[in-house]
Specification:
Diaminopimelate Epimerase, Chain A, domain 1, six-stranded mixed beta sheet, inorganic pyrophosphatase (n-terminal core), alpha/beta, 39% helix, 12 helices
Length: 299
């Protein structure tokens, strides 16, 4: 039995809960959603999949993305919810395998994954320990597996303030604070507002700037949604698109997950992503933007 999950804060917390509930000692299989969708992920019989698209033959599956609706009855839990971790938590609490130990952790995971943040949390994430920790989790060609595993081990038993003082964690938190300060300048330089949509194109930058994904909503309050465009890797043969509804200007009605499912991606009603081939990226980006401009629910 393995834990198969995505390397983001929600996925890491899912792994914490499953390790505790099922006493799983095998290595965690970290994988991104687009690899599962493309059939590139090696899913084995007995695997527990969390925060990822469904794969037939798994032992249990937990997910909350609107674009990943199951084909029929499944073992586990699927629900449109703030986080996948919350589904895992309630499932195992109902079965008597988890108590209230992780209430604070799961509550903060719900807040972070659902982007239920206020202006102060967006502008000053360093004041909010769980938000800051979540920003240290990045996937650069799977180079950070050891760090993701470390966070799973720490979050199982250590209080958040102690975790932030662990040298390998503290250095990343300090780096995030510096990156966020520089990211604001990059956003201002490379963002254009088109029909109340902020479009940030980082394809001219190498490396791609990292930073607070919600900052655009405070810098461009007139935007109802944000679109971020960048190359998927150093070979530059794929383009990654991330789209989110503004968490402050609530005018966007488009279901982002359903929209991006048309292009091989997916996500939630309020946020999602997809990967496009470089040859057709510009054409498909314009198609996506046109749907956002129309701002209709019935896409």
């Amino acid at each position: 039995m393995r834990i198969v999950t995505r390397p983001d804060f929600d996925g890491i917390v899912c792994a914490v809960l499953l390790r505790r509930a099922e006493s799983i000692a095998t290595d965690i299989y970290w994988v991104e959603p687009h690899e599962v969708q493309a059939g590139k992920a090696e899913i084995l019989k007995g695997d527990i999949i969390c925060n990822l698209p469904y794969v037939k033959g798994c032992e249990l599956w937990f997910d909350h993305h609107i674009s990943n609706s199951p084909p029929g009855p499944i073992k586990g839990a699927f629900e449109i919810a703030p986080s996948a971790a919350g589904l895992v938590y309630r499932y195992y609490q109902a079965g008597g395998k988890l108590d209230a130990q992780y209430d604070e952790l799961v509550l903060n995971t719900d807040i972070i994954d659902a982007a239920a943040l206020d202006q102060d949390q967006v502008r000053y994430p360093e004041k909010y320990p769980y938000i800051l920790l979540s920003m240290t989790i990045k996937n650069q060609a799977y180079k950070d597996r050891a760090y993701w595993n470390l966070l799973v081990d720490l979050l199982m038993d250590s209080p958040i303030q102690s975790i932030l003082q662990v040298p390998g964690v503290k250095s990343r938190c300090d780096s995030v604070i510096r990156e966020n300060a520089a990211y604001e300048s990059h956003l201002i330089t490379h963002t254009k507002i088109r029909h109340h949509i902020s479009v940030t194109d980082f394809r001219s930058l190498d490396p791609v700037p990292e930073g607070n994904r919600f900052l655009t909503y405070t810098l461009f309050p007139e935007s109802m949604a944000s679109v971020k465009i960048r190359f998927a890797g150093p070979d530059r043969n794929q383009v990654q698109i991330s789209i989110g509804r503004s968490i402050f200007n609530k005018g966007c009605r488009v279901n982002i997950g359903k929209l991006l499912a048309r292009y091989g991606g997916g996500g939630h009603a309020g946020a999602g992503g997809c990967t496009l081939s470089v040859e057709t990226a510009d054409q498909k980006i314009e198609q996506i933007l046109e749907v956002l401009y129309q701002n209709r629910e019935d896409i």
